[in-house]
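Reviewer 2 asked us to include a model.

Predict the structure of this chain.
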Amino acid sequence: LGALSGRRPAQVPAGLQGDCRIGLQPHRIRRAESPGAIRLNGEMLLAEVDGSSTFAHFAAEGHPWIARIEGVHALPPGTAFAGRVDPRDLYVFAPDGALVAPAATGGAHHG
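Predicted model (structure tokens):
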């Protein structure tokens, strides 16, 4: 959970220990600031245009991420990318890959 910079999403069980992994859906990474959001400041690796959306592949916190952004955007490799994640959108997985905490948003689109 290192990318959370010491923050623990409410859906994570209190006794959870060990080297867990987090996941989220690409459309949950936003570029706009919002209260309580986790910041993922990184560097663009690749921009992939798919119809009316752009998939931004970027590196932040020492990990690769993919954000789906509405619209067609020019995001050259090597440029800065600032993503924002609502902690409620995170899925948490145990070291063995088992889901231990689903996203609290339950798939609903918010914000």
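The first strand starts at residue 21 and ends at 23. The mean pLDDT is 84. We have added this to the supplementary material.
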